[in-house]
Amino acid sequence: LMLSVGLAGKGDQGMQNPGGLGDRPVSFHFLESMLPKAVKRRVHALKRLQVQCANIEAKFYEEVHELERKYAALYQPLFDKRRDIVTGAVEPTDEECEWHSDREEEEELAEEVKEKATIEDAKKEEATPEEDPKGIPEFWLTIFKSVDMLSDMLQEHDEPILKHLKDIQVKFSEPGEPMSFTLEFHFEPNGYFNNAVLTKVYKMKSEPDSSDPFSFEGPEIIDCEGCQIDWHKGKDVTVKTIKKKQKHKGRGTVRTVTKQVPNDSFFNFFNPVKGLLGWDSAVKLDEDSEFTLATDFEIGHFFRERIVPRAVLYFTGEALEDDESFEEEELEEGDEEVILCSLTNTPFDQKCQKAVC
């Protein structure tokens, strides 16, 4: 870590510059080496206390995880009712449908517009049979298409499949098990694959890294594991078939070879990059793979913390308005642009993987 230290005037609250180093970046290790031996010894004692604080904080987050499990059980009946309404398995009562919008005045149409709309509707009813769609059609697909983080992964050939998605659930690891959470994507029977549920497990760690205990800021997602999709023949959208012509060097004859290559699809989400991000692993990741895995972790966290708990607000767009309510400030000339993590509003880099910020 580097700390930029400037000369401190009499009224300044900054650290006094040791050795008249001007504005040169000075490492913490160098600053520590400049301390008197007796003071350095006491600083070491404070560091030991800080490590103990980090260990207590890790236990705190373990209890938070248990609390999440407890309240997940209280939320689940409400989420089950949401699923039943979305799929049309249950029709809500008039009382359950009562809702008074804060925007009623803005949404009210002038009387003449209402009358015109009524006349137009009557004409349509005469022309076509009355249709009563089941549940809330394309509920989850609409959310996927509305949220930038998800729409970036979505391909046109994914959309017919996601029309069959009826629910997304979050399940937390049981007591005594390693900390993790699982995203469950529940599908109705469809013509694309046999799985009723597709799963993605995110493994977490809530303890200070022995090599860098002061970096601990809460549980981290360290790995993820997808599932095998049992595709119907010819329906796998994660691969595409290409034909290549090959010419024989000796005879000069040409043959056509057919082979399958990877294809962009949301369903690649269930076949993540292998390797532990930020931890020692037998699988060494290149820079692109690290970025892909870090992005995967952010998406998993976003499903858990935002999409699943507030699905209806992403369907209506109200949650999107909340997300976009922070106006970007124009950078002054010479300022460096900083990309902020959408979850934490803190600088995001390729190795950002915090699950709790």
TrEMBL record:
Chain intervals for the UniProt region annotation (Disordered): 92-133
An example Gene Ontology CC term for this record: nucleus
Location of the protein in the cell: Nucleus
UniProt KW Transcription keyword: no
Annotated signal sequence range: none
GO process annotations (BP): nucleosome assembly
Lineage: superkingdom: Eukaryota
Biased composition (Basic and acidic residues): 111-133
Keywords: Nucleus
Pfam families the UniProt entry points to: NAP
Primary location: nucleus
InterPro entries: NAP-like_sf, NAP_family
Membership in a protein family: Belongs to the nucleosome assembly protein (NAP) family.
Name of the protein this chain belongs to: Nucleosome assembly protein 1-like 4a
Annotated organism of origin: Amphilophus citrinellus (Midas cichlid)
Lineage: Eukaryota, Metazoa, Chordata, Craniata, Vertebrata
